[in-house]
Specification:
This protein is mainly alpha-helical. It contains twelve helices and two strands. It has a two-stranded antiparallel sheet with strand order 1-2.
Length: 289
Amino acid sequence: MRVAQLLVLALGTGAFLLIATLGFALIRRVEGFLNIAHAELMSLAAFATWYFNASLGWHFFLAAAVAIAITAVVALVIARLIYDPIKHLGPPILLISSVGVAFLIHGIVSAVIGVGIRSFEIPRLDAWTVGGLLVTPYRIVLLLLAVVASVALALFLTQTRTGKSIRAMAINRELAGSRGINVTKASRATWLASGVLAGLGGVALGVLGTLTTDIAFQQILVILAVAIVAGLGSLYGVIAAAFIVAFAMDLSLLVLPGGYRPVVAFAIVIVVLLIRPQGVAGSREEVTA
């Protein structure tokens, strides 16, 4: 029965990791670097939602919508002011710069919010008992949100002109530009989409539990693990990686204390890199290129 309960828990964990990693993986695939500041954008969205909801008394859905919009705009502004001017220097410089951006956002959020634990003003619902298993209503909502976010992103990338431009740019930016695709417009759309997904991840983070200003650092480690396991493949690779890491972390509670969950996530990364360096959905050409 405990194994079944942990499997139910892992479904919620996987849903959150999927939402949290989608935007990060999108930037990695299209812009070609690891945006470490992604988790801090999630933190920004979480605390913006808390401020509008708990401090100003706004309805939760309105607060979350405004916070997600703000996060998307901030992501775009950061890209234009910081990343775009140094893009020609290559992914390592962008990666290092993103660490600096992460510290900048963290410092601003910490200065404005201050120390302490925060939580949204939302109803605290009791868990349901289904077949002897405890199921938290908010985790069910989170799972549905992950499905909606994944389907929406897939439809955006495959059914819209901008999405198709983003896909072409992800394959070969120079070739896409030479074929008449507005690379600048596609890049900005990518950052807005990533910001929206970071915002959703931040809201989900606050719904699942309490918030502290250090929570982003804890999340970026697991997000990195999911992205590495996924490789540079399709959206389905990110979905698979999110749930692989989630099930591994939560089932590890059978034999390990909860504090070892991030260690388990990176143990999965090591195993995947040894067996399949390109990730669960990547190709060998991506590793050797």
